């Protein structure tokens, strides 16, 4: 397949949001088209130990209008060494999205249309703001409970009125993934290497793994007749478990596996495939960050066998890989790789490691079906500009004007450590 350049649909000037923002997506005003919220983290903390709070939130529509701003951009803000506690989700269940965030040591629920505070709560602990996980722990018709954590030790589960349901101490990993494995209407919580029941009881722990879980994915990887989900954990190695905690395979052909991402990238092998990223040589030897490290993407089949591994000739070791679905009319998913370094711009790869589309700007990436068209667009952004790309031209007009877009779980579970589920 020949490599094509993605079609540039729009650019948006985001300089008024300040530096080092993370981009969130969601339909803030219910008009059938998503908006952008830029999230700036606070500075003055060491995010190896102390989690970020939010310094400033700035909402833009896709025509580049600034809709609202809460907080003030700070030139001395922090950076992406850990997550920023903010999500877009209809957390009060009224059919419109809110923005949930932690600012000034309070958990805030902001009206998506205006940024005004609808509700605010005390935190359950002074460092309970490493990230926000929205879950259904209490069994209502939709997820309205919240899990908060500190950097490396404690989880707090809270109901919709922020009453403490339970607390868990352990090694919760970067971003716990919640999923209702047993179908009782309440989410279990994969917190690092522990699977917790919805009431916080530990069901099982993954064994013989070092360090911490960088990324967790859930999906029916092996395509068994009952369609049972497996759990794939990317940490020091990449391991797959069944939902009862039995280890199915482990891929140790990597030096330091980082992100993994499930997808149907190939139609010539059964089940799902696991895309991943190996840090072959870190570029921060001696505590100093350099670009001289080296990473490489890899792809595993549903049994954990390596299908290929990239032999990278450029320098760069901080690549992020994500699954991109519904980019074009084809039946297969693609691997979106960005933050590659070494002059390599964000690129979309197929399951044979062919580049199928390239993006002619560098930066961080986000992706979503912005207008409910059934296709996803890719947004690449830096400190000044968001560039929106599609596989073909589009005016980005809502497919169903006035009908609020549902907020996909992937978008309300935004994290630097992209976990996910494949359904
Ligand atoms: Ca909208
Ligand atoms: Ca709402
Ligand atoms: Ca359950
Ligand atoms: Ca399965």
From TrEMBL:
<feature type="domain" description="Rhamnogalacturonan lyase family 11 C-terminal">
    <location>
        <begin position="23"/>
        <end position="101"/>
    </location>
</feature>
<dbReference type="Pfam" id="PF21348">
    <property type="entry name" value="RGL11_C"/>
</dbReference>
<dbReference type="InterPro" id="IPR028994">
    <property type="entry name" value="Integrin_alpha_N"/>
</dbReference>
<feature type="domain" description="Rhamnogalacturonan lyase family 11 C-terminal">
    <location>
        <begin position="151"/>
        <end position="234"/>
    </location>
</feature>
<protein>
    <recommendedName>
        <fullName>Rhamnogalacturonan lyase family 11 C-terminal domain-containing protein</fullName>
    </recommendedName>
</protein>
<dbReference type="InterPro" id="IPR049366">
    <property type="entry name" value="RGL11_C"/>
</dbReference>
<dbReference type="InterPro" id="IPR015943">
    <property type="entry name" value="WD40/YVTN_repeat-like_dom_sf"/>
</dbReference>
<dbReference type="InterPro" id="IPR034641">
    <property type="entry name" value="RGL11"/>
</dbReference>
């Amino acid at each position: 397949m020949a490599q094509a350049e993605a079609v540039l649909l729009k650019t948006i000037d985001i300089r008024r949001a300040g530096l080092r923002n993370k981009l969130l997506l969601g339909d803030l005003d219910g008009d059938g088209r998503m908006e952008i919220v830029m999230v700036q983290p606070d500075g003055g903390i060491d995010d190896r130990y102390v989690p970020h709070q939010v310094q400033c939130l700035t909402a833009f529509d896709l025509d580049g209008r600034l809709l609202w701003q809460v907080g003030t951009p700070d030139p001395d803000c922090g950076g992406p060494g850990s997550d920023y506690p903010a999500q877009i989700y209809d957390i009060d269940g009224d059919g419109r999205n809110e923005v949930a965030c932690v600012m000034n040591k309070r958990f805030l629920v902001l009206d998506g249309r205006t940024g005004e505070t609808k509700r605010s709560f005390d935190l359950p602990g002074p460092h309970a703001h490493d990230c926000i996980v929205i879950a259904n722990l209490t069994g209502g018709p939709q997820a309205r409970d919240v899990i908060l954590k500190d950097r490396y030790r404690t989880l707090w589960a809270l109901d919709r009125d922020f009453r403490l349901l339970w607390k868990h101490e352990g090694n919760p990993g970067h971003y716990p993934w919640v999923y209702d494995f047993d179908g009782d209407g309440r989410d279990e919580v994969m917190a690092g290497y522990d699977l917790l029941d919805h009431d916080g009881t530990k069901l099982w722990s993954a064994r013989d793994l070092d360090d911490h879980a960088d990324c967790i994915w859930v999906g029916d990887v092996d395509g068994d007749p009952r369609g049972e989900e497996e759990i794939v954990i990317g940490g020091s190695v990449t391991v797959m478990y069944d939902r009862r905690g039995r280890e199915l395979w482990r891929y140790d052909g990597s030096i330091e596996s980082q992100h993994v991402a499930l997808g149907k990238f190939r139609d010539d092998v059964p089940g799902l495939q696991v895309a991943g990223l190996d840090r072959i040589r870190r570029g921060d030897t001696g505590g100093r960050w350099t670009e001289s490290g080296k990473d490489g993407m890899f792809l595993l089949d549903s049994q954990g066998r390596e299908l290929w591994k990239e032999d990278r000739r450029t320098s760069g070791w901080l690549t992020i890989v994500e699954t991109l679905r519904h980019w074009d009319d084809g039946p297969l998913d693609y691997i979106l790789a960005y933050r590659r370094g070494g002059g390599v711009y964000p690129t979309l790869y197929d399951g044979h490691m062919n580049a199928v589309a390239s993006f002619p700007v560098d930066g961080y990436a986000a992706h979503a079906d912005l207008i409910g068209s059934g296709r996803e667009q890719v947004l690449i952004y830096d400190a000044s500009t968001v560039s929106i790309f599609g596989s073909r031209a589009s005016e980005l007009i809502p497919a169903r004007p006035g009908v609020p877009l549902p907020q996909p779980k992937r978008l309300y579970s935004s994290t630097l450590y992209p976990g996910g589920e494949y359904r």
